[in-house]
Every structure is written in structure tokens, then in C-alpha cells.
Amino acid sequence: MPSRSHVRALAAAQLANSVGDGAYYVTSALYFTRVVGLSATQIGLALTLAWAVGAVAGVPLGALADRRGPRGASVLLALATAAAVLSFLVIRSYPAFLLAVVAYAVAQCGLAAARQALLAGLVEPDERTGVLARLQSTLNAGLAVGAGVGGLALQHDTPAGYLAVFALDGAGFAVCALVLGRLPAVPPVPAPAASEPRLAVLRDRPYAAVTLLNAVLLLRMPLLSLAVPLWIVAHTAAPGWLVSALFVLNTLGVTAFQVRMARGVGADGVRSATRAVRRSGAVMLASCAVFAASAAGGLGPWGAAAALVLASVLQLVGEMQQSAGSWHLAFALAPAGRVGQYQGFFGTGVPLARTVGPLVLTALLVTWGVPGWLVLGAVFLAAGAAMGPAARWAERGRTDAAVPVL
Predict the structure, then answer these.
(1) Distance between alpha carbon 101 and the CA centroid of its chain, in Å?
(2) In this structure, what CATH number is given to the domain that contains residue 142?
């Protein structure tokens, strides 16, 4: 099957589960509070624990995908995710909810690593960043459609509507498993020698440095979903409906422009990828400065709204540059035969940002205000600038160890 067919199948699998996820994300909190009767604190603690466990589990599950074959591992983990989501249909107690969300997070983190290893086996190295950009566009389109479906469930606000959303999400992951299962098998890699560590990524300090810097840059993830809405309400004169408009702007922007933004990234290897990440840090600093300026008293509602839109556009550009650069680095700095475990480790940045980000951003932006925005922007700038030296360190490690680079 030609590579273009592989990409279409990967995109179809991505779309199948992202539509359900979009609906799940906008409805799950209300379902578990209003229907099941859990408190917001209970939900928050369970999700924090679940994503922490998922982050840890992603590495061995990625290594398992390397050893057993990423296609089979992807199918099984997609089915496991479907089972975890469908279990929400019958859960009515906190212990059961905790077990289910831990299973969901573990399966999702493992699935992300296995799918990346499957992509690496099906797509040529110089095409991977572009393919990932297409998949990211597909993901955002699916989330937008799913959010619309979830909005209908929120409007009716009935247990049956929420349960239909969970059934849709579970079915989406089952379809994802079916599509992935029809892709060609990628041969598993041999088990490491007895003298070699089974989870070599845990001893790879340069790659860990790259992963940590990427996790810092991923603090942008809870920025638009949590910090900006709180900032708009508490510190600006902008209308409240702008929160939804900025979310739509971001989703549609990534859908429309991520592929174009990824062109040329990785063209000359790690150097162009680190340039993209460095530029993203500078753009994010500018975005934070404009977000801070939106609180100026003399702007009025529409002036504040204009500043917030400009800041969100800058944030969108920084996000797409950072995504494209980090995708290339994650693959290029991983040794052949260990893509799954390295992708699992690199992927820990997402749950880490989701876990730590709300606490950091709330303290910096909501509590501290304008100075907090400037500090956050400086952190983005520093992390983006440091990515180049860290990536070169990791690249030298690959060369010194005579390990082939993907």
C-alpha cells in the first residue's frame, strides 16, 4: 500500500477518536458532578493522579510496542481506551471512577507512543513532520465537530444525552482500532542484549533535557483553556463570550495552517527544527506581553477584545511552530529500534503540562497579574532558546554512541 494510503488511514483513525474526545471533553465534568454526584475536588484529584500514572506507563508501553510490533499494540491500546470510556456508562462511585480514569489515561498515553512508533515504521523520515502536521489538523477538526456534538448534550442536560456522548467516544476508539488494524504490520525490533538496559531512554540525559524543555513550552496547553478565560473575566473589560471565540479561533487556525507552518521544518535536520522552537519562544513572549496589555484600563471592552484576539493569534503561531519543531526532534533524536519507548517518554510532557500547568498559570497570571505574564513569556523565550544546545547535545550523543538516527 502506498505511503499516501498510510497517511489517509492514520488520519481516518485520528478523526474517528478525536470527534468522540471533543464531545467527551466538554461534557464529562458536568456529567460526573451532576449525574454521578462527585465533587469538583474529587474529579480534579482523580485526573491528576490518572495522568501522572499515564505518564509513567507511557514509556514501558512504548517499549512494548517496539518489541511486539506497534500495529498490534496500537490496536489493543485503542480497544483498551474504548473499554475505559464505555465503563463510564455504568460507574456510580468514586473508587470505580478513579480506576476508570487511571485506565483511560494509561491507555491514552500508551496509544500515543504506539501510534508514533507505527507512523515511524510506515512513513519516511523526511515526511514525518508533514504527516504529523496533517494529523494535528485532523485532530483539531475532529475536536471541533465533537465539541459541537457535546454542546447539544449540554443544551439538553439529560443523563441520556451524556451517556450518548460516552458511547460515541467509545465507538470512536473502536473504529480507530479497526482502521489501525488494517495498516501493514511494522516488524518488531529484537529484544536488547542482557547487558543493555530495557528502558534506555531513562538513562538518556540529553533526550531528557529536550523532553523537559518541551514540557515547559507545553504550558501553552492550559493557557487558552484555563488561564485566559480566568484572565478575561477577572482582569479585563472584554465581553465574556470572547472566551468561546478565542477557543474557536485557535482550533480553526491549527486546522487551517498547521500543515503550512510545518513546511521546511526538518529540511536540514535538527537545526531547522530548533530554529522553529526558538522562534516559537520569541512569539510566545510577544503573545504574553499583549495578553498583559489587554488589562490596561483605558482600552475599554472592544479595545481589550482586540488586544486579546491579537495575543491569541500570536499564541496560535507560537503553538504551531513549537509543535512542528518538537515533532521532528522527538523522532530525529530517538535511536532506531527504540522509537516507541522514546516517544512514550517524550509524550510525558503533555500530562506533565496538564498536571502542573493549571497550578503554575493560576499562580502567575490570575494571582500575580501583569508581572506574571511577563515572567511566563520570559520562561517561554528561555526554553525555546535552550532547545538548540540541548538538541545538539542529544545529537552528539547519538553520533558518539554510533547509534543510527531516524
Answers:
(1) 17
(2) 1.20.1250.20
Tell me if 62 sits within 8 A of 342, measured CB to CB: yes
Q: pLDDT tens, 244-293?
A: 788 888 888 998 999 999 988 877 779 999 999 999 999 999 999 999 99
Range of the domain at 286: 200-400
User: What is the count of structural domains for the chain?
Assistant: 2
pTM as predicted? 0.84
Give first-to-last CA distance, the chain, whole Å: 22
Amino acid at 250: N
Check: CB of residue 108 under 8 Å from CB of residue 173. no
Residue 360 in any domain: the answer is yes
